């Protein structure tokens, strides 16, 4: 297992102060233009406006980039579920049973799992027979809403809970080959880009070259690292003198294994108490429905999904974006 303690510095806060120099007069009065402090105040506010405009543009561009990566990462699952649009395009009431059977098969192939698939299909069948759903587009919308509601209600705590005390410790666990070290490196990069100071600690003493791999990620991300080698510890900033309470215990699950990840999650949760999930390698899988199955079965929120090999390809999980990405 690999653990990742990190020190979190509070984000710097930019504040602005606006002072009204005089009250507005009730009648129009021509006043001479004053230079000096008023002029400097106007220049300052103008600069601040430009800064916030640029900041807003950068945030919007970053958000769009994240959404695009998520859509791209789930392309195989989306292709798998494209048959749903064909099924519903010419749907009529007399073909309800056949269409729902084919819909059930499409969901199972995408690893939604028997349990959640039956819930979805029976809910749609009930709404169709009661007259609530009268067209293919309404059925598609109801399908998306069902999945979104499930993810929102059972897995809504998707943000990392780091708190304000230092250090805030994140422990990364999972089976060999699941993507722990890679996910840790990407997570460290994301947190560092948000202004957090990171110290990695290699906790996997079993797998050959595990520490070496983590050192490479530390170098790539510019983070410090502590590696235990027998009785020796090497650390650029000295020994870690205090043990921090773990704020998050994240389980990394290989998305290509589909529903086979559920037994792993159950066992790890019993032993260490999982607070969140990282689903890796989803960009190479057509089994994106496993996200829904995991949340439905375990009630543990998915906090990040891996949708590529790059540093930026660990994306925060957002239920609405996910539903749009696989059903669009």
From TrEMBL:
Subcellular location: Membrane
Alphabetical list of Pfam families matching this protein: SRP54 (PF00448), SRP54_N (PF02881)
PROSITE patterns: SRP54
Alphabetized GO MF terms: GTP binding; GTPase activity; signal recognition particle binding
Residue ranges constituting the SRP54-type proteins GTP-binding domain according to the UniProt record: 301-314
GO-annotated biological processes: SRP-dependent cotranslational protein targeting to membrane
Organism domain of life: Eukaryota
PANTHER family referenced in this protein's UniProt entry, alphabetically: CELL DIVISION PROTEIN FTSY HOMOLOG, CHLOROPLASTIC, SIGNAL RECOGNITION PARTICLE RECEPTOR SUBUNIT ALPHA
Similarity-based family: Belongs to the GTP-binding SRP family.
Official protein name in the record: SRP54-type proteins GTP-binding domain-containing protein
Naturally occurring in which organism (per UniProt): Stephania japonica
């Amino acid at each position: 297992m690999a653990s990742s303690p990190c020190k979190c510095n509070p984000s710097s806060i930019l504040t602005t102060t606006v002072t009204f120099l005089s009250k507005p007069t009730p009648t129009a009065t021509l006043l001479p233009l004053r230079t000096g402090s008023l002029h400097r105040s106007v220049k300052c506010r103008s600069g601040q406006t430009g800064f916030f405009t640029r900041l807003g543009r950068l945030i919007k561009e970053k958000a769009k980039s994240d959404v695009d990566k998520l859509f791209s990462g789930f392309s195989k699952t989306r292709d798998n579920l494209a048959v749903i649009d064909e099924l519903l395009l010419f749907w009529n009431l007399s073909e309800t049973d056949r269409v729902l059977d084919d819909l059930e098969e499409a969901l199972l192939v995408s690893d939604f799992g028997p349990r959640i698939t039956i819930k979805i299909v029976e809910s749609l069948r009930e709404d169709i027979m009661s007259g609530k759903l009268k067209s293919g587009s309404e059925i598609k919308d109801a399908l998306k809403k069902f999945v979104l509601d499930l993810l929102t209600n059972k897995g809504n705590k998707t943000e990392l809970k780091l708190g304000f005390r230092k250090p805030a410790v994140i422990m990364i666990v999972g089976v060999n080959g699941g993507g722990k070290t890679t996910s840790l490196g990407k997570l460290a990069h994301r947190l560092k880009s948000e202004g957090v100071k990171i110290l990695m600690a290699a906790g996997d003493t079993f797998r050959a070259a595990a520490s070496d791999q983590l050192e490479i990620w530390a170098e790539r991300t510019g983070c410090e690292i502590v590696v235990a080698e027998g009785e020796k510890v090497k650390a650029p900033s000295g020994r870690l003198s205090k043990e921090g309470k773990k704020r998050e215990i994240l389980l990394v699950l290989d998305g290509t294994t589909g529903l086979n990840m559920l037994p792993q999650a159950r066992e790890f949760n019993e032993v260490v108490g999982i607070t969140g999930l990282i689903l890796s390698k989803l960009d190479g899988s057509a089994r994106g429905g496993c996200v829904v199955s995991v949340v439905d079965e375990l009630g543990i929120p998915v906090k990040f999904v891996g949708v590529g090999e790059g540093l930026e390809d660990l994306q925060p999980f957002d239920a609405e974006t996910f539903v749009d990405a696989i059903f669009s």
